[in-house]
């Protein structure tokens, strides 16, 4: 049970970092705002 808890915490931290990276990439992307904004708003990770 302890291993599952540790793994869940690692996945949670990985998800937060991944969301930040994706948000940074999309905010710097040369795509139109009408496409970029809905994608950024859908990233609702803590």
TrEMBL record:
<protein>
    <submittedName>
        <fullName>(rape) hypothetical protein</fullName>
    </submittedName>
</protein>
């Amino acid at each position: 049970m302890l291993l599952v808890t540790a793994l869940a915490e690692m996945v949670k931290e990985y998800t937060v970092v991944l969301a930040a990276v994706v948000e940074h990439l999309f905010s710097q992307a040369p795509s139109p705002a009408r496409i970029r904004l809905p994608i950024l708003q859908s990233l609702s990770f803590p």
